[in-house]
Amino acid sequence: MSTSPSPLTGKVALVAGATRGAGRAMAVELGRAGATVYVTGRTTRDHVSEIGRASETVEGTAELVGEAGGHGVAVPTDHLEPGQVRELVERIDREQGRLDVLVNDIWGGDHLVEWDKKMWEHDLDAGLRVLRLSVESHIVTSRYAIPLLIRRPGGLVVEVTDGTAEFNTRYRKPFYYDLAKYGPLRMTLGLAEELPAHGACAVCVTPGWLRSEAMLDTAFRVTEENWREGTAQDPHFAISESPAYVGRAVAALASDPGVARFNGRSLSSGGLAREYGFTDVDGSAPDAWRYLTEVEQQGRPADVTGCR
């Protein structure tokens, strides 16, 4: 990784799905590394998406990118609307003339998932929208963004999912969620075959147990400052990580001139922390997927020793 204090100065990134959570943190950390970052999402200060979280907006993310030292540009975009995505990429081309990093972090389907339903019991319309949000939106974005990205050698596509390829070989119930989270892994493999001829590469990145805004204030009713109190509800929450951790992972990849060695790979925040030497905001380096496999999945008592 470059030793420059701003290794991404002069580079342009698009983080699709940057309103909150991992996408917001990736945008901020790319900005901290010096990049100009276009951030997209459906919630703005004038419009709230069906997710219903008005406090997290694309404008807010762009401001955080600027505060971190980068240049953030908020572009409200519904990535299921090809015309909007085409206009987004045309704007980036017009204003910057280049695109160096594409992060496909679009999701927003949790509220549609009927977690305890079998495939044939799950609402069909909701299930199909889950797949549209997690797969179709990524395809539409790549379709329009990649021609700009490959104009110069060295481009990087980052698909974002939940779970490593190894972990996701098991069934991640329910049916539609399983497909949604395996889709980006397969898209990465396909792009990894097609991009190298143009000097670009693709990777799939997953955070661990992410302390997103909703995970904190809705699922566990804690804050980032007192998140450890959430272990009273679920002791395994001790392995959780802040969004900044995966943000630092993506910034490290984007700053690495040798990133093509990871082409087609499934990568995790914990694994990349070992590779690049960064930590989470508390100075720890959680490896959630190893922990979940070796401890939680085995029915062992919560103990993060050796995994954090």
SSE arrangement:
Elements: E1 12-16, H1 21-32, E2 36-41, H2 58-67, E3 71-76, H3 82-96, E4 101-104, H4 124-149, E5 156-160, H5 175-194, E6 201-206, H6 213-220, H7 243-255, E7 266-268, H8 269-276, H9 288-296
Parallel strand pairs: 1-2, 1-4, 2-3, 4-5, 5-6, 6-7
Condensed summary:
The protein has helices spanning 21-32, 58-67, 82-96, 124-149, 175-194, 213-220, 243-255, 269-276, 288-296, and strands at 12-16, 36-41, 71-76, 101-104, 156-160, 201-206, 266-268.
Provide structural commentary.
- The chain is an alpha/beta fold.
- The protein has 9 helices and 7 strands, in the order βαβαβαβαβαβααβαα.
- It has helices spanning 21-32, 58-67, 82-96, 124-149, 175-194, 213-220, 243-255, 269-276, 288-296; strands at 12-16, 36-41, 71-76, 101-104, 156-160, 201-206, 266-268.
- It has a 7-stranded parallel beta sheet, with helices on both faces.
- Helix 1 (21-32) packs across helix 7.
- It is globular and about 55 Å long.
- The model has no long low-confidence stretch (mean pLDDT 96).
Largest sheet: 7 strands, parallel
Shape: globular
Return the structural class.
Answer: alpha/beta
Spans where pLDDT lies below 50 across 5 or more residues: none
Tell me the number of strands.
7
What radius of gyration results from the CA coordinates?
18 Å
Largest sheet, spatial ordering of strands: 3-2-1-4-5-6-7
Helix content: 25-40%
Gap from first CA to last CA: 23 Å
So how many helices? 9
Mean pLDDT, to the nearest integer, reads 96
Run of helices and strands: EHEHEHEHEHEHHEHH
Quote the beta fraction.
5-15%
